[in-house]
Amino acid sequence: MGMYGGGRDGFIGAIHRRAALMDSSIELVCGCFSYDAEISRMSAADYFVAQERVYATYEEMISCEAKLPEGERMDFIAIVTPNHLHFGPAKMALEAGFDVIMDKPITRSLEEALELREILYRTGRTLALTHTYTGYPAVKEMREQIAGGAIGKVRKIFVNYIQGWLHERVELIDGSNAGWRTDPSRSGKGGAMGDIGIHALNLAEYATGLKCVELCADLKATLAGRVLDDDGAALLRFDNGATGILTATQIATGEENDLSIRIYGERGGFKWRQEEPNTLIKLHPDRPAEYIRTGNGYMGFRAKCNTRTPGGHPEGFIEAFANIYRNFAATLSARIYGETVKPEWLDFPGIEEGVRGMQFIESTVESSAQGKWINWIEK
Amino acid sequence: MGMYGGGRDGFIGAIHRRAALMDSSIELVCGCFSYDAEISRMSAADYFVAQERVYATYEEMISCEAKLPEGERMDFIAIVTPNHLHFGPAKMALEAGFDVIMDKPITRSLEEALELREILYRTGRTLALTHTYTGYPAVKEMREQIAGGAIGKVRKIFVNYIQGWLHERVELIDGSNAGWRTDPSRSGKGGAMGDIGIHALNLAEYATGLKCVELCADLKATLAGRVLDDDGAALLRFDNGATGILTATQIATGEENDLSIRIYGERGGFKWRQEEPNTLIKLHPDRPAEYIRTGNGYMGFRAKCNTRTPGGHPEGFIEAFANIYRNFAATLSARIYGETVKPEWLDFPGIEEGVRGMQFIESTVESSAQGKWINWIEK
Amino acid sequence: MGMYGGGRDGFIGAIHRRAALMDSSIELVCGCFSYDAEISRMSAADYFVAQERVYATYEEMISCEAKLPEGERMDFIAIVTPNHLHFGPAKMALEAGFDVIMDKPITRSLEEALELREILYRTGRTLALTHTYTGYPAVKEMREQIAGGAIGKVRKIFVNYIQGWLHERVELIDGSNAGWRTDPSRSGKGGAMGDIGIHALNLAEYATGLKCVELCADLKATLAGRVLDDDGAALLRFDNGATGILTATQIATGEENDLSIRIYGERGGFKWRQEEPNTLIKLHPDRPAEYIRTGNGYMGFRAKCNTRTPGGHPEGFIEAFANIYRNFAATLSARIYGETVKPEWLDFPGIEEGVRGMQFIESTVESSAQGKWINWIEK
Amino acid sequence: MGMYGGGRDGFIGAIHRRAALMDSSIELVCGCFSYDAEISRMSAADYFVAQERVYATYEEMISCEAKLPEGERMDFIAIVTPNHLHFGPAKMALEAGFDVIMDKPITRSLEEALELREILYRTGRTLALTHTYTGYPAVKEMREQIAGGAIGKVRKIFVNYIQGWLHERVELIDGSNAGWRTDPSRSGKGGAMGDIGIHALNLAEYATGLKCVELCADLKATLAGRVLDDDGAALLRFDNGATGILTATQIATGEENDLSIRIYGERGGFKWRQEEPNTLIKLHPDRPAEYIRTGNGYMGFRAKCNTRTPGGHPEGFIEAFANIYRNFAATLSARIYGETVKPEWLDFPGIEEGVRGMQFIESTVESSAQGKWINWIEK
Lengths: 379, 379, 379, 379
Prior knowledge:
The structure is a homotetramer. By secondary structure, chain A is α/β, with parallel strands linked by helices. The first copy, chain A, folds into two domains: about 1-130, Rossmann fold, CATH 3.40.50.720; about 135-310 and about 355-375, Dihydrodipicolinate Reductase, domain 2, CATH 3.30.360. Helices cover about 35% and strands about 20% of the residues of chain A. Chain A has helices at about 10-20, 35-45, 60-65, 85-95, 110-125, 135-145, 180, 185, 190-210, 300-305, 315-335, 350-370; strands at about 1-5, 30, 75-80, 100, 125-130, 155-160, 210-220, 230-240, 245-250, 260-265, 270-275, 280-285, 290-295, 375. In chain A, strands 13-12-11-10-6-9-8-7-14 form a nine-stranded mixed β-sheet. Chain A has a five-stranded parallel β-sheet with strand order 2-1-3-4-5, with helices on both faces. In chain A, a hairpin with a 5-residue loop joins strand 12 (about 280-285) and strand 13. Chain A is globular, with a radius of gyration of 20 Å. The mean pLDDT of chain A is about 95. Chains in contact: A-B, A-C, A-D, B-C, B-D, C-D. Chains A and B meet through strand 6, strand 7, strand 8, strand 9 and strand 10 of A and strand 6, strand 7, strand 8, strand 9 and strand 10 of B.
């Protein structure tokens, strides 16, 4: 693995690195960790990466690595930079024959996303997108049970992503992660909707297997001086007739990272909260709710494939992230060694989820501006 | 107190009766407990009400009681019947000089509500509406703190009322409470929105002191054969610029009575869930959340006025209900004995909340039908 | 009902009164509410009790009431005074032909309790003891399920009663409830063990149907100046071979009224916490824990007999208390009217639980003083 | 790092490996992963360890590695085998000049532990013991706050470790982890007390900074056929006069890994549960409880040193484990490179905790057998 971004002190880069390394299935061999060469070099030293494989730009990294012999060069690139620095390296890496794992949203615009999809199809490489939250075993259990008919036809979905860190203008503080996120030239059209709303959408669609087809959104730049939405919600309609509500706010003062989902069907329901990720509540119409806990023998196959500890030994965010890396790596490894790719390894988000996220961002912005419902299936 | 409705085996009538009697400040002296004379008589026996003060109709009750000497006749009437049986007895009671306490929604239509308001103003009587949930001490604490500026200007409100009991067509079962609730001729224009959505609205407006001015709703009769909404949501905008989301669903299979609210301001937030009513969570931007618990010495004045037990001795739904009765009774008692009515006794919902609820029902129905935002302040 | 104690501003008296009146099955007709005649008179006015039936002493109350005609005189006396004022009025009332409901511990000493038992047997009256916590429907459900074999043979019991209100010497504050509780001349030999430890014991024995036979206790008067224990614990052994731990502390700074129990058997377990009394957790060895919630259709018969609201409409401490009063009143009423007493009405604590509590207090004090195990079955 | 034990499919070995590798500060270079040479070889392949550094015995590993040049040979050994296989390799490694990190309990007997302490002192190496639970940042916060006087003098400690996996005789199943744990020849004198009771003791002493000096225990082999305790409890007295209760049971059917602690002082209290490790509850006598959450800016220095994610991004068991490895590795690294060892790196359990654990096991066994209190400070 080579990394683009992820220098010391970055938040998400460190998560990517830990997630990648935890399972002894991936080695970090090169990187362009920062636009600041000094930081990049120091980061490499921290990470046991040889200084000769620290590169100044992604272009340099990809072209140099491509010249190395097979087995020595990086197998894939992890792109962990801000949104406006996704498309370029992803395109170049794919065209140079590398696989790609990258942070969300996939690109800065829908247009870029669609182009990347074409490139991916053309090159036949593999692309993973780190929608972390669907990496949790409890979410996979929910998906597997719903797919198996456990709650009957889904009728109602609530998915809320509630954060508080933008309740003040932290983007005015130098070095804040909020800087690029609140800047349309780097972030794209979506603020909170683009940063976390697409996680919520991905969670809802992954868990239920449904697709949202219509929405009516209300976005707002709550704090004076902001251009992009820092708060928003959308009424949803799904392809099976179910309705839903999606919230993405970053101005809920005092909240940390409260992503939650509630799904109700004809014969039962599920509830899950990311901040207590090892518990999945299953509701029944005529008997007590069950508190399903990860790591137990009664869990389904998919959850078990993505669990490292027995019940009561909590797993968390890094492990959820690591599931995406592990499944991605297992898929690549099988391909490299000519083995069969098992279906459970293919369980990671990719280009379709990426395109869908961009469609969602643009649709919510448009719906909110017009104050009306949008059918976005044809986007 | 005289009761209209509330015969044995009814759910809400029994709650009203217990709530009224718990504090030794109200006596049940007469009633028309059921349209079935036999049930009405047996109920009276259960309740220690003299058989000669059991009446066949509300008209009979009001006219007979009005003829009794002051001090002997009932002081007020409690109306605990389905919606279509609210307006008639309330009107007649007010005009006969009785005060009224009644269940929500105040009437079957906005038109009736507006007329009742005129009658009330004209007669100068007192009217209380049992929006139970704002009777909880934790809710009063939240209101008092927000009014005092504890979280700064309110920016965001989530209020969800999630039930599951209509996930099947229980209205087809004889004697079900769902019968009249799903029947527009008895219930009015609103289904879930009218039954529980107005509780959610009342809670949001009471807690924050704000008024909702615009909304965009999506209502649905989910189960085939239903005419009224059994599920719905609305995007909200408030008079101070805050935004919100309100949900009212009765098809969330497996849920009981999950009313909850989350309010976020510039400097903090509050969270409360009716199913665990004695805990109020207060969020801060820069220090740990506080779990405020009813019955403790640190609670504010209004919460204390509405609490009966010390911390850790849980109070519940009946006590919240009883707070409305007690405050209403204290107000009447002061008026009867020529004492000053203390502001804390006037802390119960009344005609304005009633009219507002009817406006809300009609606005959500209209917005949903048209698929667009409605400014309902002028209604 | 006549009351001994319970004047305005008292905590537990007001709970008794509300509990008694909530269900319209008991009327408060007389009382000696306070040793202060003025307070007693004012309390009577508050409670709608005629001034001519306010008495100066319990002796006066019992002798005067006994002379009133049947049907007019009180049917029973509620004794809600400190421990040293339990035995006298209870003895006199029983001997005068009245039934008795009284607060715990039943007397100030085991000797008094044993004597009271003899009097009760001799007079043939009915006596109820307000061990409130076994009045909760969730506790009754637990008992019914365990009795039915739901978790197999019970192996382990944890019961903890953790309060914080005596973390300072509040007994030095005039008028504090702590005054008599920390004074052996009024409270008896037990401090925290006598005040709350016996609730914990009662809960453990009621829920499991087992009897504790051996214990090894460690009691402590933590705060300088205290004579009685304000903190203690005991290792327990039960008659079926199960082991347990019981805690009773009042110096756990910041805690309110955290009584909880956990019971484990061969095939499952139960967990319940008084501060969230409507949820009962049932554990299984091989499938998810169930969250049993009061008020639902799936609850057992005993729980249903002691529930007033549907699921999600929380009941609390006053309702648990009221269950004891209601069952006691139903038993008396049946006897008075010559009806059959139903088994579910007899579901209230009485003399045996009272004697057992006193044995427990004395045994824990003795075990702690000697630093060894005590077999207390023969006490 | 070299590993002794930890072949594929082992539970705790995989945790050790992930914990060691997560932070890019440790490399796995050799091992004797299993007594089965084939499994050992396959494990090495899984872990990217060269086959020539897979050893048949720990003796071979230590002697061969010792002959490799500095910088190439392993720096330390991780011992992750059953208890009876701790002392031998630890002794040999220390004497060969290697540092040691090992699973708990440190040895099979107190005698071995005392001898190991002497060897450690003599060789001057570093030894870490993986008492995982004190690796959690919330526990470190609790320790730091208590040391700083946040709750005043500690008066009461409850520490409970409640598991259910031995509710049946799983040790009869081939390959179960329970096999050696229930076998005194491999496990030592303690069953549940040795396996998990010492974690509870370590947690209580680490969090409070106190030492337990007296105890009165009751241990039991609940299931027929067992020799070692599978359930037990102890009354505790600490060196500052505080009292406590410690529980260690593995027969609580349906429980997973419910380690919890509650600490009460003069001016406040703390509560923490391992199954929701990112929340630390702080109690106050006169204001609401605070819910302290890891990853927030308000956390203290020690917690921050041991946290990888921002608030709301849950960390878990593997991260707690990794904190021990990281602090141990930072200490070794500083020593190797001649840098100053920072106090925060020395924050890991070692030989003293190991000896103390063995004293505790033997004291509880002895106290239980004799049915009396034991002063174990002089052991």
